[in-house]
Amino acid sequence: MSDVVHIRHITEADWDGIVEIESRAYTGLGLSEGRAALRSRAEISPSTCFVLDIGSGPAGYLLALPYPALSYPDLERTEEAVVPPPPAPASRNLHLHDIVVEEGLRGRGLGQRLLHHFTLAARSRGYERISLIAVGRSDTFWSARGYTAHPGVSPGGYGANAVYMSKAVPADPGAQPEPTGVVPRGPSVPTKRADARVPCP
User: Fold this and answer.
1) What is the residue extent of each domain of the chain?
2) What gap in Å lies between CA 170 and CA 127, rounded to an integer?
3) Average pLDDT of 72-83?
4) How does strand 58-66 pair with strand 50-53?
5) Are 23 and 190 in contact (CB under 8 A)?
């Protein structure tokens, strides 16, 4: 792996790589969305979606978009296909839909770098909370990072044991608590979608 790691916004040339990474991470869980759905999430909020670039193409990515609190994307539909809710104030909740690092690069702190970069972006844009859906029993991973479960929300379509979670955007993202306990390891440690149909990065 190159010593130079860049976290940047997604470009058109990244999508083939992102789709491949997403498919490897989620097909086995029955949660893969496909190119059209992934792109529709990113197009809603390009400024909060990132790619992890190590020089040879995407090695990971993160998708996040504004979503009303306690709500979440439908994995079987693109954002354009979702019936818009009644007019409401702009959401101060940013939904971390997806974060994945290539399996061979996990354990090197790259997922944590992506999360830190994302949290800085959320704070700079005035978001108050970050939500996600932990899948594949990754809720322990996210709890160790300050996310709290909302038992009253049952995320349909995200698989067994999916947990809707959220936390306040920290005033100083650099002052987040150190992870505690054992970090679960999985094919991609997903959270979806930690997104966050999100596996653990």
Assistant:
1) 6-74+86-198
2) 10
3) 82
4) antiparallel
5) no
Look over the chain and give the mean of its residue pLDDT values, rounded to a whole number.
84
Tell me what pLDDT residue 87 has. Answer: 42
17 with 25: CB under 8 angstroms? no
Residue 1 pLDDT greater than 50, yes or no: no
Q: Find the helix or strand (DSSP H, E) in which 21 lies.
A: helix 15-26
pLDDT band at 4 (very low <50, low <70, confident <90, very high): confident
Q: Are 167 and 128 in contact (CB under 8 A)?
A: no
- Cβ atoms of 52 and 108 within 8 Å: the answer is no
Q: Are 105 and 144 in contact (CB under 8 A)?
A: no
Q: Does domain 6-74+86-198 have CATH number 3.90.550.10?
A: no
Dihedral angle over CA of 87, 88, 89, 94, nearest 10: -110
Do 101 and 109 meet the contact criterion of CB atoms below 8 Å apart?
no
Whether 168 and 69 have beta carbons less than 8 Å apart is answered as no
Enter the pTM of the model: 0.83
Give residue 69's pLDDT: 94
